[in-house]
Amino acid sequence: MLTVHALRIELAKSYRVAVDLLSEMPGVLEGIGLTRLPHYTVLRTWFERIPTKTWRAFLGASAGKRTGHAAIDSTGFDRDQPSRHYANRTNYRVRALKVTALVDVETLYITDIHSMTSKKHDAKIGPQVARRNAGDLRSLAADRGYDAKAFRDELRENGIRPLIKHRLMNPLDHAHNARMDGDRYHQRSMSETVF
């Protein structure tokens, strides 16, 4: 089923059209081990019911060998804009989706994803993502949005080198930023390439 869904995405078709196209490709069906295709609604429902934990396991397994040097960044995606009448009638308030990705900076594999519809600060999301991947990380690069003493301390306790610039609030912050390994820190921009 996952292969059929991946083919649907690759073909950039709807569920219905993808199933119709695949029904005319017996060689492809044989290659993925299917004797008959499911109805397109079964495929859509199955895909929507996959829990986030399973997606994280799939990401982890497909990421291959991790180097341990990762970067974290987040971005927002606008959701489809419903009509104002529909939004008011159904009490629809979700306007955007915030996605945080943990990316291996050398291989550009996405190793973890966190998504939400609420407006939580990056400094609150970063520790959750780092905790889930603490065994695989040696260093974590992030922008100033993730700057929090508690987050840095937690990373150090887990043996992870934090590469997070300090927000400039006093002269000591300038000194901390000057001592940071520039090459490793600047690799954090690699996380932006996956969006």
UniProtKB/TrEMBL annotation:
<dbReference type="GO" id="GO:0006313">
    <property type="term" value="P:DNA transposition"/>
</dbReference>
<dbReference type="InterPro" id="IPR053520">
    <property type="entry name" value="Transposase_Tn903"/>
</dbReference>
<feature type="region of interest" description="Disordered">
    <location>
        <begin position="176"/>
        <end position="195"/>
    </location>
</feature>
<feature type="compositionally biased region" description="Basic and acidic residues">
    <location>
        <begin position="176"/>
        <end position="186"/>
    </location>
</feature>
<dbReference type="GO" id="GO:0004803">
    <property type="term" value="F:transposase activity"/>
</dbReference>
<dbReference type="GO" id="GO:0003677">
    <property type="term" value="F:DNA binding"/>
</dbReference>
<dbReference type="InterPro" id="IPR002559">
    <property type="entry name" value="Transposase_11"/>
</dbReference>
<protein>
    <submittedName>
        <fullName>Transposase IS4 family protein</fullName>
    </submittedName>
</protein>
<feature type="domain" description="Transposase IS4-like">
    <location>
        <begin position="68"/>
        <end position="195"/>
    </location>
</feature>
<dbReference type="Pfam" id="PF01609">
    <property type="entry name" value="DDE_Tnp_1"/>
</dbReference>
